[in-house]
Amino acid sequence: MQTTLYMLKRNTEALASLERALELDPKSANAWTGKVTVLEKLGRASEAAAARSQRDLALGTKPSVEDHLRDRARLSPPPPSDGPKGR
Q1: What is the DSSP letter of 10?
Q2: In the chain, what are the domains?
Q3: 3-state SS string for 18-87
Q4: Is the pTM of this model over 0.90?
Q5: Which of 8, 18, 71, 85 lies at a CB distance of 3.0 to 4.6 Å from 35, suitable for a disulfide?
């Protein structure tokens, strides 16, 4: 069901369904992966990073280097601008 909602771009409903699935089975790798994906689609990078950490704790896994670098890049402030170009 969550996949169908996600495919229909009903991300808020998909997220609610995934959270319910995690209440029923906190060790569901599919539900955790879906939750992270939907949070990223909703532009909620800090919540996605937190969900990744919660997933790793729940499943007893270690975060991947790729996850760490992705979270770091998404959560870091943008570099300062040099101002308008061409002056």
Answers
A1: -
A2: 2-73 (1.25.40.10)
A3: HHHHHHHCCCCHHHHHHHHHHHHHCCCHHHHHHHHHHHHHHHCCCCCHHHHHHHHHHHCCCCCCCCCCCC
A4: no
A5: 18
